[in-house]
């Protein structure tokens, strides 16, 4: 079959659509991928989509990778295709379909609501040979308004049997006002990510996550299977795929292992990977870790191989929020201890630490917010931070709780907007108060220090921030109206 895949990520992420493309090609199908990637308006008008006519007019099937944050784009593309090309099926897959299959079926002809490694090939082969595809496991279908939701297969285990992610540029295009063939230069420019803004190759070496965070769509796998089981690529497979892809895309300066928790790997595998990576790849790299899996000995093994940065989720300085709202089995004191152990390696090995925090949470009290502020003030100056707005993704336990408690309205896909990072602009909704202003102020000053090398702590001693967060100052600040802090939060974005 001739198949068109749409990747909707504004950063042209290396998501599952590249794997699905490789699987379909291996099965003998023809695949072209369209990237709808841009940082300006997310809306693609019909006239712009009509630039795809010569491609869509010569295809048998359309598949779209859908995240909740980009679902509006998916709806626009789907409605356009249904209107302009009647009878052409549109199949959705990805995290949004996993989280809320019933909502996704409102728009798509079919969805993949779990892993697609076997299911998608089974479905396409049946469709191609005029067999009954509506019983395909891991998939659901909208048959004239009637939903057919099939059984879920067990988690796919043999990751080494999968093909390499598809970076064949001859079959890929970018739609951003004009339709352009994909080039190395386009990929290089659109893969310069925070925190280093250098061309960064994103690569997954595992699936699954040991955590059960209430805000994450990984919770859907837990509801399906009782757990989100950990599965790993072998070390040799990792090295072979990296060699293959990076020889082709030879401009990357940094590698990001995007696993949910890289340090869950056994130490023997980490030792083997470190030796082979340094010998054959030799690029600086970033990993993610939780405080639970962090081990100093594992970190030290990777330092000589090129470990540049560890990204770790703290999320909140309040243990109550971490436990009762986010359901993360991680002690705040443990994250502090991990920070304490990692900090000296910045000076000795140029190792950076990037910590994630989630703010603007309606379940926080002002005392919870100030605990996050205190955590930030305690951090070494060189520690980088990510500050995200809490997003209520449909299908997650926290979404259900917030809906029940009246903090959010029922999710509407056609008007969904999620702003995650404070880099996208300030939009404080639930915590318009002095304590939130302090967090945003510290974030802004830390960014200026890192970006412009202004040593603001030479001029603003840490004791000043202690005073700003003290009880007397908080009491005085509470006398001002909420609108005043809404104004201040906008000023420090």
Report on the structure:
Strands 7-6-5-4-3-1-2-8-9 form a 9-stranded mixed beta sheet, sandwiched between helices. A 7-stranded mixed beta sheet has the order 10-11-14-15-16-17-18. It has 2 domains: 2-161, Rossmann fold (3-Layer(aba) Sandwich); 192-491, TIM Barrel (Alpha-Beta Barrel), CATH 3.20.20. The mean pLDDT is 91. The chain has helices spanning 16-26, 46-49, 53-56, 71-84, 95-99, 101-104, 119-128, 184-190, 219-225, 235-248, 267-280, 296-303, 319-325, 332-342, 344-349, 366-378, 397-404, 434-452, 456-459, 462-468, 471-477, 482-491, and strands spanning 2-7, 30-35, 61-65, 90-93, 110-112, 139-143, 146-149, 172-176, 178-181, 192-193, 198-203, 206-207, 231-232, 254-257, 285-289, 307-315, 352-359, 384-389. The protein has 22 helices and 18 strands. With 493 residues, the protein is of the alpha/beta class.
Alpha carbon gyration radius: 23 Å
Structural class: alpha/beta
% residues in beta strands: 15-25%
CATH superfamily of the largest domain: Aldolase class I
Number of domains: 2
Mean pLDDT: 91
Fraction in helix? 25-40%
Strand order in the largest sheet: 7-6-5-4-3-1-2-8-9
Number of helices: 22
Largest sheet, in brief, is:
9 strands, mixed
Beta strands, count: 18
User: Stretches where pLDDT falls below 50 for ≥5 residues?
Assistant: none
Name the CATH architecture of the largest domain.
Alpha-Beta Barrel
Distance between the termini: 49 Å
CATH class of the largest domain equals Alpha Beta
CATH fold descriptor of the largest domain:
TIM Barrel
Shape category: globular
């Amino acid at each position: 079959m001739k198949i068109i895949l749409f990747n909707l990520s504004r950063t042209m992420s290396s998501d599952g659509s590249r794997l699905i493309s490789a699987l379909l090609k291996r099965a003998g199908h023809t695949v072209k991928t369209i990237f709808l990637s841009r940082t300006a308006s997310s809306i693609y008008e019909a006239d712009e989509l009509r630039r795809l006519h010569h491609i869509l007019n010569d295809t048998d099937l359309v598949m779209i990778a859908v995240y909740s944050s980009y679902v509006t784009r998916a709806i626009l593309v789907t409605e356009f295709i249904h209107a302009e090309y009647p009878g052409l099926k549109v199949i959705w897959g990805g995290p949004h379909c996993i989280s809320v299959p019933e909502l996704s079926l409102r728009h798509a002809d079919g969805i993949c609501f779990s892993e697609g490694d076997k299911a998608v090939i089974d479905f396409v082969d049946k469709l191609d040979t005029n067999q009954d595809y509506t019983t395909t496991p891991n998939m659901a279908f909208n048959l004239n308004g009637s939903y057919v939701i099939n059984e879920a297969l067990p988690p796919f285990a043999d990751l080494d049997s999968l093909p390499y992610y598809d970076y064949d540029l001859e079959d890929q295009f970018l739609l951003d006002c004009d339709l352009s063939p994909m080039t190395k230069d386009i990929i290089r420019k659109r893969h310069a990510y925070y925190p280093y803004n250098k061309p960064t190759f994103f690569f997954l070496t595992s699936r699954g996550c040991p955590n059960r965070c209430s805000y994450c769509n990984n919770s859907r796998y837990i509801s399906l299977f009782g757990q989100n089981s950990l599965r790993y690529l072998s070390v040799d497979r990792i090295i072979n795929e990296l060699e293959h892809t990076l020889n082709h895309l030879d401009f990357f300066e940094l590698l990001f292992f995007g696993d949910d928790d890289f340090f869950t790997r056994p130490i023997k595998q980490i030792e083997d990977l470190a030796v082979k990576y340094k010998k054959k790849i030799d690029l600086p790299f970033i990993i993610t870790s939780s405080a639970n899996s962090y081990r100093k000995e594992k970190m030290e093994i990777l330092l000589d191989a090129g470990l540049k940065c560890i990204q770790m989720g703290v999320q909140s300085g309040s243990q109550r929020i971490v436990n009762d709202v986010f359901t993360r089995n991680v002690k705040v004191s443990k994250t502090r201890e991990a920070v304490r152990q990692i900090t000296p390696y910045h000076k000795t090995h140029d190792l950076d630490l990037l910590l994630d925090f989630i703010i603007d949470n309606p379940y926080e009290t002002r005392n919870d917010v100030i605990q996050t502020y205190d955590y930030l003030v305690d951090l070494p100056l060189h520690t980088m931070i990510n500050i995200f707005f809490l997003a209520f993704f449909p299908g997650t336990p926290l979404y259900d709780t917030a809906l029940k408690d009246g903090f959010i309205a029922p999710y509407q896909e056609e008007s969904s907007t999620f702003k995650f990072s404070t880099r996208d602009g300030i939009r404080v909704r639930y915590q318009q108060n002095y304590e939130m202003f302090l967090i945003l102020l510290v974030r802004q000053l830390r960014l200026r220090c890192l970006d412009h090398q202004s040593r603001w702590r030479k001029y603003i001693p840490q004791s000043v921030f202690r005073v700003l967060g003290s009880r007397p100052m908080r009491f005085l600040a509470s006398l001002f109206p909420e609108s005043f802090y809404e104004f201040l939060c906008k000023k420090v974005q």
